[in-house]
Design brief:
Number of helices: 4
Largest sheet: 7 strands, mixed
Strand content: 25-35%
Helix content: 25-40%
Number of strands: 7
Distance between the termini: 18 Å
Structural class: alpha+beta
Oligomer: single chain
Shape: globular
Order of helices and strands: HEEHEEHHEEE
């Protein structure tokens, strides 16, 4: 809800795309999962002046007991030059000093997200082009549960839709 309000204040479209083959609940650290997702989405909205931020959960492969997901946060923001893409994961570092003056923030969100994922053996990656946007993504494997996810619609859920809460009850 907080990120939706933040996006609405900036007139940024926030979208959620869930792979229809994501049918089962998975086991994982929901606190850390949402901390990383929140940091990535917050940054995406913060550095996007016009356009959209899209969150995608894609099933890459699954067995009877495991599921490999790609979690992707893509924006139409300011982008990051190739030579700055490695330093943005450092603590207190943004692509350049004018970025912190223009957009604010401490520069900790990506460093924290990277550290959380590193501790789980997962690598946070970025694809970006200046003035065209960025995509921060990672691939993580989860153990599946027997519980199935019930939802009315599985694709292109607008995050702000009060009737549809795609993560409600998921742990």
């Amino acid at each position: 809800a907080g990120l939706q309000s933040f996006a609405e204040e900036k007139n940024i479209q926030l979208g959620l795309h869930i792979d229809p083959s994501l049918q089962h609940m998975v086991l994982g650290d929901s606190t850390r999962f949402f901390q990383v997702l929140n940091n990535l989405v917050h940054n995406a909205v913060k550095f996007t002046k016009i356009g959209s931020v899209d969150i995608s959960l894609t099933v890459l492969k699954q067995t009877n007991s495991t599921m490999q997901l790609r979690i992707d946060v893509k924006d139409t923001g300011i982008g990051i030059s190739k030579n700055k893409q490695t330093i943005i994961f450092d603590r207190f570092t943004q692509a350049d000093s004018s970025t912190s003056r223009s957009f604010g923030g401490t520069g900790l969100g990506l460093a924290i997200s990277k550290k959380i994922l590193d501790m789980q053996g997962v690598r946070l990656l970025v694809e970006s082009e200046e003035n065209k946007g960025s995509s921060f993504w990672y691939i993580q494997e989860f153990r599946k549960t027997a519980s199935r996810i019930e939802r009315v619609s599985t694709n292109d859920i607008p995050v702000g839709d009060a009737e549809e809460k795609p993560f409600k009850g998921i742990r």
